Amino acid sequence: MSRMAAARAWARRYAALVRNAWLVDLQYRAAIALWLLWGVSEPAIALGIWWTIAGDGQVAGYARADFARYFFAVMLINQLTIAWDSWYLDRWIREGELNFRLARPLDPVHEAVADNIAYKTRTAGMILVVWLAVALVWPAVRLPVEPGRWALTGLAVLCAAAMRFFISFTTGLLAFWTTRATAIMELHAGVSLFLAGRIAPLALLPPAVAGVAGVLWFRYMLAFPVDLLTGAVHGADQLLRGFAGQVVWLACWFGAYRLAWTRGLRRYGAVGG
Amino acid sequence: MASAITAEQLSKTFHVKVRDPGLSGALRALVRPRYRDVQAVRGVTFRIEPGEIVAFLGPNGAGKTTTLKMLAGLLYPSSGRVQVAGFEPWSGGSDFKRRIALVLGNRQQLVWDLPPEETFQLNRAIYDIAEADYTDRVAELVALLALGDVLDKPVRQLSLGERMKCELAAALLHRPPILFLDEPTLGLDVTAQEAIRRFLTEYRDRHGATVLLTSHYMQDVTALASRVLIINRGRLLYDGALDALVARIARTKRLELVLGDGVTAETLAAFGEVRSFRFPNAVLEVPREDAAATSARLLAAVPVADLSIEDPPIEDVIRQAFAEGAAEDDR
């Protein structure tokens, strides 16, 4: 098969997978509404708290309008980067749903990637509409139209989404060894509430804690792209360090995924499903 | 011509964690886990030629599904050699997977919330099936499986039989030459079972596919398979034609009688073992080699309206084969 034909075949496969994921979503409209509510409410509550605390002054350089922009950006970027794959993987492995997936000529990771594309375009699309509607009446949440900033944010979101995907997928693969894979993912989600900047900008955390978030992967999975979008990343040095952190941790998690997949399959092959 | 499936001295040992019951057992397992080796498949050797339909028989936990999964490349054998369609299954990659279909009766690939046609479309993209081929194959499968009015209903609204038919259709769209079917008729009613059997035979005849299936239903075996593999406790006990197995295992024949007036069970008991007696019908079991002579004596001595000589039910034969294999194993 020529390279072009192979690329076309892959495009058809992804189109079919994304289409199926959307069709399944459409069967569960109430669930979509609830997820959307969840996606909006967490940052909205955090914003409400910081809004009250900031009053007419500032907290660590953040005034009310800064908090508003920050949490609207969190709302959007969290939906664009979040991954639920550990829950699916856990079920596939424990309930034998991996079997037919392993018997067909498509690595199951592609189905998971396609599911992510479907989910993210759908949910983030709706949140973008909500944001635009709010921005019409509330100038505080408007962002300047700077193509450079949006392009860099797009790149950072892509890296963060890929990293969070591999974190979730790899954690799900732990189901090859333990029945507690989803509990580990819950723990990770709990830690990321603080360290990824979901309930407060990292600048507000004690320096030691913010330092840990910057050394580990947490900052790069959400806070960095949010800061990029809201204009809180200053200078080439901060920019490069942010992207370097993303690339390094993405590579690490990709490596962890490959390792868990090959070892896990071997184990699955050894103990059965 | 090369064999479609070859297994040589195929073995699989699982390393499983063992745990005593209760909370103390759970705690002990946490602190000092204990493991036990379970030999699921032991030195199994067989060959299946292209176009054969072979039934894999054995009680639960005999090693049928484990063997099937090794042949489909899902499990690594602990030892031995396997070749399927010219490939070593677990290293055959996409080229191998395009040549097989694996249908597990209790696990479905159909997307639960969508009509089966959506899964067909997905498989069309995954297996890279050309539009014209896809249309032809769907038409053929719809006709063979009588799927006309179910393709656009969500899978969750289909009956078990309809779902299994669609499951088969989805698995065969890429027209694989080798089919592994694990309990394809499990839980289906008699009509649906027959439809699946008819389809499998027809599909094999049209496309020369090789089929290896496991089943608990003897009707599947007698209707479909020219050959059976009997496995118990991981060991292959028998490989051959079903009637040859009956001749080897069944030491008796059944004389099915419709009796004339005045014949009692006591009268019949002089000729063999009375298995059932509900006048005027009776079933008498006699040693295999004496069947003809006993029938002649019986016809001469008592009034008989009808007599037929039958093999014992195949279920009994298979049960006896398992029992003999187990006894041999224990020795």
Share of residues in helices of chain A:
over 70%
Shape of chain B: globular
The helix-strand sequence of chain B is: EHEEHEHEHHHEHEHEEHEHEEHEH
SS field, number of helical segments of chain A: 11
What topology does this entry show?
The complex is a heterodimer of chains A (273) and B (331).
Chain A: H1 3-27, H2 29-54, H3 64-81, H4 85-94, H5 98-102, H6 108-137, H7 147-173, H8 181-195, H9 207-215, H10 218-230, H11 235-271
Helix pairs in contact in A: 1-6, 2-3, 3-6, 3-10, 4-7, 7-8, 7-10, 7-11, 10-11
Chain B: E1 5-18, H1 22-31, E2 34-48, E3 53-57, H2 64-71, E4 79-84, H3 93-97, E5 100-104, H4 116-126, H5 131-145, H6 160-172, E6 178-182, H7 190-207, E7 210-214, H8 218-224, E8 227-232, E9 235-240, H9 242-249, E10 252-259, H10 265-269, E11 273-278, E12 281-287, H11 291-301, E13 304-310, H12 314-330
Parallel strand pairs in B: 3-7, 3-8, 5-6, 6-7
Antiparallel strand pairs in B: 1-2, 1-4, 8-9, 10-12, 10-13, 11-12
Primary descriptors:
heterodimer; A: 273 residues; mainly alpha; 11 helices; 0% strand; globular; B: 331 residues; alpha/beta; 4-stranded antiparallel beta sheet; 12 helices; 13 strands
What do you see in this structure?
The complex is a heterodimer of chains A (273) and B (331). By secondary structure, chain A is mainly α. Chain A contains eleven helices and no strands. In chain A, helix 2 runs antiparallel to helix 3. Chain A is globular, with a radius of gyration of 20 Å. The two termini of chain A are 34 Å apart. With 331 residues, chain B is an alpha/beta fold. Chain B contains twelve helices and 13 strands. Chain B has a six-stranded mixed β-sheet with strand order 5-6-7-3-8-9, sandwiched between helices. In chain B, helix 4 (116-126) packs parallel to helix 6. Chain B is globular, with a radius of gyration of 24 Å. The mean pLDDT of chain B is 89. The A-B interface holds A 9, 12-13, 15-17, 19-20, 23-24, 27-28, 96-97, 99-100, 102-106, 266, 268-273 and B 14-16, 40, 66, 69, 72-76, 90, 93-95, 97-98, 100-102, 104, 106-109, 111, 113-114, 118-119, 121-128, 154.
